[in-house]
Amino acid sequence: MNDTCDKLVIFLAKRDGIDKLVKTFQYVSKLVNWHVEATQPDIANRFKQWEVASGLSRKAFRTGRFLTGFNALRRNPGSTNTLRSLAVLSNAGEMVYFFFDHFLWLSRIGTIDANLAKKMSFISAFGESVGYVFFIIADFIMLKEGIKAERKLRRCKEESKSEEELEKEIKKIKGDRIMRLMAVAANVADLIIGLAEIEPNPFCNHTVTLGISGLVSAWAGWYRNWPS
């Protein structure tokens, strides 16, 4: 119990940890609002207000987040030319998303012209979606390389390595695979949310689709950020 509490404190001390928690509030309230809208309008309105407040607070909390793209490229540009190119494109798209998200937030709270909200939302969602496409491609490449590396380790029992060392390396590869699968799940979910803004359609814009996508993204991010 104490260990779980300690991990929760560490998780909520991170910017991403708080973001995933508030994102959970945002999309749970969205689904509850949709579920009770016809039968209990008063309760539905309360959850709608919670959804809007959560969304706006997340945008405020992400102020300056677009700069993390530079840091990501500096620390991990990629091991091959292909991965470096994908890293540049994915982080560039994410930086566009976070940068214009600032203006979307300011327009929605009335600090700047409210008429700019729709335009800022489109640009932000477009950059976000482009970034997620390249993040997904890069993760699939790394997943494929991880599978090859694991097969090689299992097939070629190096004499210089003990059984314990080999199992340790395989365990590390498996751990990385789980994290990348969580990243793919989150990015696909967020891509659906972005597409709902770029090109509205009955599937992506349905409340259930958006709600489930938001929760998948939040909980996959929760898993990835939870202290080991």
From TrEMBL:
<keyword id="KW-0472">Membrane</keyword>
<feature type="transmembrane region" description="Helical">
    <location>
        <begin position="120"/>
        <end position="143"/>
    </location>
</feature>
<keyword id="KW-0175">Coiled coil</keyword>
<keyword id="KW-0962">Peroxisome biogenesis</keyword>
<comment type="similarity">
    <text>Belongs to the peroxin-11 family.</text>
</comment>
<dbReference type="InterPro" id="IPR008733">
    <property type="entry name" value="PEX11"/>
</dbReference>
<dbReference type="GO" id="GO:0042802">
    <property type="term" value="F:identical protein binding"/>
</dbReference>
<dbReference type="GO" id="GO:0005778">
    <property type="term" value="C:peroxisomal membrane"/>
</dbReference>
<dbReference type="Pfam" id="PF05648">
    <property type="entry name" value="PEX11"/>
</dbReference>
<dbReference type="GO" id="GO:0016559">
    <property type="term" value="P:peroxisome fission"/>
</dbReference>
<keyword id="KW-1133">Transmembrane helix</keyword>
<keyword id="KW-0576">Peroxisome</keyword>
<comment type="subunit">
    <text>Homooligomer. Interacts with ARC5 and FIS1B on peroxisomes.</text>
</comment>
<comment type="function">
    <text>Involved in peroxisomal proliferation. Promotes peroxisomal duplication, aggregation or elongation without fission.</text>
</comment>
<protein>
    <recommendedName>
        <fullName>Peroxisomal membrane protein 11B</fullName>
    </recommendedName>
</protein>
<feature type="coiled-coil region">
    <location>
        <begin position="149"/>
        <end position="176"/>
    </location>
</feature>
<dbReference type="GO" id="GO:0044375">
    <property type="term" value="P:regulation of peroxisome size"/>
</dbReference>
<keyword id="KW-0812">Transmembrane</keyword>
